[in-house]
Design a protein that fits this description.
alpha/beta, 10 helices, 6 strands
Length: about 300
């Protein structure tokens, strides 16, 4: 629980329900290891334990199939008192604990590799990877694209302002975002990890984000429908870079559903652009070593910061 920062990640969520969700995740990780055996009476939900703790919490809170489990559990072993108002971990102490466990896990994996003991178990590695935070403020970026006020037209397509896309709508209705991750050979493992962190940031930006994820090199793979709490599937690609197949796929989807949406393309920018700009607004998210922002022929471009 400490290593996965289950206390600091709770925020204002219900403590008991969060505790159950965290136990399901941890017990699922332990059950995958052949050297350990869980005791009788341990909380297990095999259909949930591969998810992040946030996704498990959401399922327990909203799905009637799990209500009996919640009612049966009356204990709580995650400490939540003494941290601040309402038992919520204060920001300063939360940051300090997060830094401590981040360093501890890095050291543990380094020692394991040095001694020839391999790396973290697959389930633990997956959960740790989900803790990587997005570097962009996606709530702000989606707001800028979809919720411009009538007095703020500069640099924005007026058609989208006139369709009732205001902040209230963004908080209450579905927000459709077409996301494409560049999986061409010019994108390395570190950049790919950063891209997937940004995808998770998009999913967590608003309660009702509907993400249609694509992977694209010279061809387009997808869509993979994702909502808050989902983990992106394994990337597909490795070839050349052509941006056109993704925008062709979006145009086909737009003809089918007819909704208003935004496109986000995470890439180094080294590829073939369409000769004509697509109808939805586009945000290009460029790697630190990618092309110059001025070379993007349409849409808005932003560069990811260098990792420190």
């Amino acid at each position: 629980h400490a290593a996965l920062r289950h206390v600091s990640r709770r925020g204002t969520r219900d403590p008991l329900l969060w505790n159950i969700a965290a136990d399901i995740v941890v017990n699922g990780l332990i059950a995958q290891e052949p050297a350990y055996e869980l005791p009788l009476g341990t909380i297990r939900k095999r259909q949930l334990e591969h998810l992040s703790v946030e996704a498990v919490y959401h399922a327990l809170r909203t799905d009637e199939r799990y209500r009996s489990l919640v009612l049966e559990v009356a204990w709580q072993d995650l400490l939540d008192g003494g941290f601040g108002v309402g038992g919520i971990l204060d920001e300063r102490r939360s940051a300090k604990l997060d830094e401590h466990w981040r360093h501890a896990l890095d050291q543990a994996q380094t020692v394991a590799r040095t001694l020839g003991h391999g790396t973290a178990p697959a389930g633990l590695a997956r959960e740790l990877d989900s803790l990587r935070e997005a570097q962009l403020d996606w709530r702000a970026y989606l707001w800028r694209f979809l919720v411009r006020t009538p007095s703020d037209f500069q640099g924005f397509d007026r058609r989208f302002v006139g369709r009732g896309l205001y902040l209230e709508a963004l908080d209450g209705d579905a927000v459709r975002v077409y996301v494409c991750v560049d999986t061409s050979g010019s994108v390395g493992d570190q950049e790919m990890g950063t891209f997937l962190s940004e995808v998770r940031g998009i999913l967590g930006a608003y309660p009702h984000v509907e993400c249609q994820l694509y992977y694209a090199d010279a061809a387009c793979h997808g869509p993979y429908p994702l909502t808050a709490g989902d983990q992106p599937p394994k990337p597909i690609g490795g070839g050349g870079t052509d941006f056109r197949p993704f925008f062709a796929a979006v145009a086909e989807q737009q003809r089918a559903v007819g909704d208003v949406a935004v496109c986000v393309y995470l890439t180094d920018g080294m590829g073939t652009f369409p000769s004509v700009a697509p109808d939805p607004p586009v945000l290009w998210v460029l790697t630190p070593g990618g092309i110059e922002v001025a070379r993007v022929p349409f849409g808005e471009a932003v560069r990811l910061p260098y990792d420190e």
